[in-house]
Fold each of these.
Amino acid sequence: MKVTGVLPLFLPLCRRLWPGRLVDLAELSVTLLKATALEAAILAGHLLLYPTGLTQEHRSPALPAQDGATRLPGRPGPPVVLLHGFIDNRSVFVLLRRNLARNGRQRVESLNYSPLTCDIRIAAELLGRHIEEICERTGSGQVDIVGHSLGGLIARYYVQRLGGDLRVRTLVTLGTPHSGTRAVPLASAHPIVRQMRPGSEVIEELTRPAPGCRTRFVSFWSDLDSVMDPPETACIDHPDLDALNVRVTGIGHLALPVHPAVAAGIREALDNTLPEEPLSDGLTVA
């Protein structure tokens, strides 16, 4: 990116405002600019949709395809449960849910956990009750889970610490702080944010041995995810877990549950039940 005009005048000021960081607007990449613009657009759209997801969804039969879209035949597989992130709700999955349904995933449910939740462990217990209800209602012995941010951490705790590996076939996480994140220090006033910090009791529990864990993990992480500090904290690194980390290049935290390229990767992760069908090890979003 070429810097012209008065922009060079601001470089010394930027360096003073952010000591210890190399702030050079001349090297600001087009990719970062696009990702930032996309994050802003997604945030604006999500704020409009947010009220529609405040309540738990009504359980109803699959709706016919809209706008002339054709649904693919239903794919065999367990129900898919979508679990949102911190101070969010099920409305974040509107596009992903539609994408999954149009590609044959007809049993998809979005769960809300209370915005007043203050403990990941309690949220994981409640998730377990929801999973049992879903299995009883659908007659399925297992589910797949897709969790964004905190939702992925709640689901992992349920699987790894509460015996949820009996019920969860595949857990897909999107921008989840598996090793804890240092981002937004002021947010540490909230107890659940403190549990997402490196070295917290919850993060430490997830490093403990988990021999025989049956669940398959797929973690999508982005190199431009500003909520994950460092970005690699969204990777799963545990010797006892069957885990695959998929790097996504070119988008930020809010885009992970929205972008169609990631949705395609999620579908591939959910369909990839055999070791001889490896998932691609990276996604590049232009």
Amino acid sequence: MASNMVSNNTTEEARIQAKELTSLQTVSKELHELAERLGKARIDDDYVETDLQTWTTILEKLKDDVNTFSPSIYIQENPKEILVAKMYVSKTLQQPREREKFRESYGPILIKNNGFMATHIGPNNDTAYVRGLGEYSLGTHKIRFLFTKNSIHYITSFKVVSALMPIRGVSKSSYEGYGWSSMDEIECPGNQMIFNRNTLDMKGETSFEIELQLDCDNQKISYVNQRTKNKRELNVDITKCPFPWQVRFSLYEVGDCVHLLP
């Protein structure tokens, strides 16, 4: 019985994939024909406003047709092309990635709970770093974590750094990170610590849960404080923080702890 169910599921998946492939081939053919018409019009300089409206209508219809049979297939446009955008079909296959874990540390850090928790173990207060396993260069990624501290008097921070940058933060290539501190300061290249007086978010707190988002495609990072619902965003200069990115946490006081959440 179980084998029949598996067989039926496999057959149905194959049928759906075949249908998607046929639809994709049809759309590709229609796009190719439209592109040829557009190319000829551009070369001959032979088109009017009504032609542009017609071609735009055809393109929008093709987009709608694609969305009806698979949301993973989409039409992209290059707005830099003259006359109308250059169009092509792309099928995105997103492979599931493992949950973020801690991989390496510098200083008195204990990594435990199967790599999901890192704690400053002392015996003295001192700067220590712990960095995630994941490397990010494409797409958008969200990482949730809980920071807990014993007091409000010492600073912790989280940021993205280049995987090319040593864990201890000293780089011969002058690569630097971008992020935020528990004092609500923006940490960015040039050792700048920019404090926004209008945003009191983590300052004065001994615990905060954060959802950090890495938007590699648009070269920016942002976070949402799960308690205050405040959101902050920061552009990243990839000449100073090149891909692939990793997430790095800075702890200072004995007992400081960061826990990666599902």
Amino acid sequence: MNRILKFSFHTLSALVLVALVSLAKAQTPPQDSIFIIDQPNYELSPHTGLTRKHWEDAALYLLEGAFSHIENIDDPMLFPDHPGAARPVRDPVSVTAKLEGLSRTLFGASVLLKQNPELQINGIKLSDYYRHHLVELTNLKKSSTYIPPRAKDGGASHNLVEFGAVAISLFVAPEVLWNPLRKAQKDALAATMISYGDGPTVPSNFLTSMFSASLNPRAMRSTKRC
């Protein structure tokens, strides 16, 4: 468990750094849109001055930006397109793109929800939002978010990477994200994640995701958390 928490924290740190660098490169950003490192501690963190509290504040900062695009619990985690600064967005947006937004923001949300399960942003309770969308991934009646299990002869899939990220977040805050789900919901989600984790991969970060997506749901179902 400690290794999972450390891995999630390091991954979150990398995501926050990327976001902060992107902000720094903006030509004329409004002053109130910039994340400020308040009282850096260079004794504890010589290179950046960042403490765990700073990372938590940065995660909240990023989530506040993300949820500024969410009006209700049914809205997927999608952001406005910035031509030239992001990958082209398909129309209609693929379910994998929605899964990507869900899984990447859940990295930060899971850490904060571990500490405060009642956390709300933009009038939306984050625990309800993420549980709702995790369940919708296996909802056959919701074609805009449904992700079918990988076919037995299916090849490597981007879904593997995102489900690997989801698996790590589930381990970070299972009491908020996993335990409240009904058994049928857990079984459906685990089966879909494992189908990709047990599939083929490529020599990149897909490999780490394969282990997370395959082993973590199995572990979750085999413990008292189920």
